[in-house]
């Protein structure tokens, strides 16, 4: 009997971005609340972030999306009537909204990216989750 087909990278991307589920198994939820994520998948045990620097990617993505939205609002206000004193509060609000609205998706995209590059796997497995290859990391041979 043949093994089930390996989920495609696009399917894993859908699990993470579309359903906010673990990109390794597609079952465990990524988030415990609005801001908090599980450290490991509640279903398969894959660890989502392995080192403190793991947060750099989603942080940069959040700042970038906030800055882009604030810039777009600034250009819109400037085009409509010119920037005036007090408009900074609209730009600040736009930046906060621009960073928070895509928050879950940017972190999910980052977890998917880490999985794709072999950094999301169950502790001790070094790249193999439920017999599936995890991204590009080669599975360790078991003794
Ligand atoms: Zn999982």
With strands numbered from the N-terminus, the spatial order across the biggest sheet is 1-2
The helix content is 40-55%
Q: For the CA atoms, what is the radius of gyration? A: 19 Å
Instruction: Give the total of domains.
Output: 1
The share of residues in extended strands comes to: 5-15%
Please state the structural category: mainly alpha
Order of helices and strands: HEHHHEEE
Spatial separation of the terminal alpha carbons:
24 Å
Catalogue the unreliable spans.
Answer: 129-143
Characterize the largest beta sheet: strand count, sense, and whether it forms a barrel: 2 strands, antiparallel
Number of strands: 4
- Small ligands present: zinc ion
């Amino acid at each position: 009997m043949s093994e089930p087909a390996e989920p495609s990278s696009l399917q894993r991307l859908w699990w993470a971005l579309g359903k906010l589920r673990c990109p390794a198994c597609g079952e465990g939820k990524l988030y415990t609340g609005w801001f908090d994520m599980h450290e490991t998948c509640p279903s398969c045990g894959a660890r989502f972030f392995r080192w403190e620097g793991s947060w750099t990617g989603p942080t940069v993505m959040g700042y970038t999306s906030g800055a882009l939205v604030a810039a777009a609002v600034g250009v819109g206000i400037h085009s409509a009537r010119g920037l005036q004193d007090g408009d900074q509060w609209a730009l600040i609000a736009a930046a906060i909204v621009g960073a928070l609205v895509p928050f879950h998706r940017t972190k999910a995209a980052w977890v998917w990216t880490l999985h794709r590059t072999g950094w999301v796997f169950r502790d001790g497995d070094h790249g193999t989750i439920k017999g599936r290859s995890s991204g590009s990391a080669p599975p360790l041979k078991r003794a």
